[in-house]
Amino acid sequence: MNLKNKLIPFSLAAFVIALDQFTKFLVVKNIPLHTIKFSFFEELLRIVHVRNKAIAFSIGHTLPDNVRTVLFSFFPLIILILLVIYVLRTNEVTMPQRWFLAGIFGGGLGNLIDRFFRPAGVVDFIDVKFFGIFGLERWPTFNVADSAIVVCGILLFISLFWKKKESL
User: Fold this and answer.
1) How confident is the model at residue 165 (pLDDT cuts 50, 70, 90)?
2) Quick check: is 124 catalytic?
3) Which of 74, 101, 144, 167 is close enough to 20 for a disulfide, judged by CB 3.0 to 4.6 Å?
4) At 68, is the pLDDT very low, low, confident or very high (cuts 50, 70, 90)?
């Protein structure tokens, strides 16, 4: 596969980054921090404005700032760079897997932009009711980048499983 074909899926990464940063810009501009702006379907979905200096589920929020910076900014940046190098150099990744990896890259970079340029933390704004499942009344608030990482990660996992099943 030539380099041009390997680069095409990164258009998804660019789209995810643009959509993520645009939605975060709108939230920061129009919703005061720690407030609910919109509520839909009897509070099933709310649009809020919160910040997260940690990672998913606020894991690591008690760590010192310098440790969080290394663990949640520089380490993921290195991982994302290595991911791009791998995707561009290998021919063992299928085209759908390249798209899924590009979506993960876009989501990761979208959140890293916040980590480097928003000192208050990553902007999260999608708040979903979780009906007490796993003891959570509401799922931890997330954003477009988080959604891209999760959806593309699940699809990548399924594609890897599917590929192994076909080779049996």
Assistant:
1) low
2) yes
3) 144
4) confident
Catalytic residue among 20, 114, 124, 127: 124
Residue 167 in this model has a pLDDT that exceeds 60? no
The question of whether 127 is a catalytic residue gets the answer no
**Catalytic site residue from 20, 114, 127, 146:** 146
HEC per residue, the chain? CCHHHHHCCHHHHHHHHHHHHHHHHHHHHHCCCCCEEEEECCCCEEEEEEEECCEHHHECCCCCHHHHHHHHHHHHHHHHHHHHHHHHHCCCCCHHHHHHHHHHHHHHHHHHHHHHHCCCCEEEEEEEECCCHHHCCECCCECHHHHHHHHHHHHHHHHHHHHHHHHC
